[in-house]
Design brief:
Elements: H1 10-18, H2 23-37, H3 44-72, H4 74-80, H5 93-118, H6 124-140, H7 150-173, H8 178-197, H9 203-208, H10 214-218, H11 220-244, H12 248-269, H13 273-300
Helix pairs in contact: 2-3, 2-7, 2-13, 3-5, 3-6, 3-7, 5-6, 6-7, 7-8, 8-11, 11-12, 11-13, 12-13
Length: 306
């Protein structure tokens, strides 16, 4: 991660490749999905199943995603962030490939086990894990390399971090319905705005290697406004949905959680996103993920889960 210290310990290097800080939204997404199912109970078996689902979504499959992304981005990282494990030579490429395979197989194995635990006739969680892993591969790997397109790549990233773990948590404890699936895909457009923030630090390398990230296409100033607009507009759209389904108290709470995000956008994101990207994410994202949970709990108490 940006500003991380170096290490020669191989397991610390492997952990750096997996980027534990990126697991948090996926773990939280599983929690939101469980809340939205309206059917989660604080019993030992269900808590254990939820922890296993978080392990699948976060350390295993998010770890796989981050490792494979660094593998295919090693040329860009050599320009932008040469201190990272792969471009710095801290870990051989054959060990990176082995880590990718182990994390993928372990994640799919946990997904299959959760389907068996839940008694699914259709292996919903395994299919979600397989689909998400495929999206992660084509996001990073040529010839498709979705991240070459700022809009498509960032939406794929946003949906993977918001919609997919939510679907997994909801399918594990209840039934994933079309209304909530579409709602979370719309919510993922706010995640697109968050994904743009990660592109500011890579502008130099992206431009050199022809990647059309939004900061490269629109410039840093315009891209910061696009990021802020996407984050705010689609959360406000969720406020409208909550009002429409009669969850007025949740709608008010969500508005109150959006206000500090806008404040931090003005302080950090819109002033200098390259210098303050980490500070912005650390200050604003907790309010975004709390808003997700508020939305999920409201959905769990509405007819959308029926």
């Amino acid at each position: 991660m940006k500003g991380a210290g170096g290490t020669s310990t191989i397991w610390k290097i492997r952990l750096q490749l997996m980027k534990p800080v990126t697991w948090i939204p996926l773990i939280w997404g599983v929690l939101c999905g469980a809340a939205a199912s309206g059917n989660f109970h604080w019993t030992l078996p269900e808590v254990g199943a939820s922890v296993a689902c978080m392990l699948m979504s976060g350390p295993l499959l998010a770890g796989y995603t981050q490792t494979i992304n660094d593998f295919y981005d090693r040329e860009i990282d050599a320009i932008n962030e040469p201190y990272r494990p792969i471009p710095s030579g801290a870990i051989p490429l054959n060990q990176v490939k082995a880590q990718i395979l182990i994390l993928l197989v372990a994640g799919l194995g946990v997904a299959y086990g959760l389907d068996r635990w839940a008694g699914h006739t259709t292996p919903v969680l395994f299919l979600l894990a397989l689909g998400g892993s495929f999206v992660s591969f084509i996001y990073s790997a040529p010839p498709l390399k979705l991240k070459q397109n700022g809009w498509l790549g960032n939406y794929a990233l946003g949906a993977s971090y918001i919609a997919l773990p939510w679907w997994a948590g909801q399918a594990l404890f209840g039934q994933l319905t079309w209304p909530t699936a579409l709602l979370t895909l719309a919510y993922s457009l706010a995640g697109l705005g968050i994904a743009v923030v990660n592109d500011f630090k890579s502008v130099e390398g992206d431009r050199a290697l022809g990647l059309q990230s939004l900061p490269v296409v629109f410039g840093i100033a315009r891209a910061s406004w696009i990021s802020a607009t996407m984050i705010d507009v689609f959360q406000l759209a969720m406020v409208a949905v909550l009002i429409a389904i009669g969850q007025h108290f949740a709608a008010v709470l969500l508005v109150l959680l959006i206000v500090p995000q806008i404040t931090f956008q003005d302080i950090w994101l819109l002033s200098d996103p390259v210098a303050f990207d980490v500070k912005y994410q650390a200050s604003a994202q907790p309010f975004l993920v709390l808003g997700m949970l508020v939305t999920a709990l409201a959905i769990g108490h509405s007819s959308l889960v029926a």
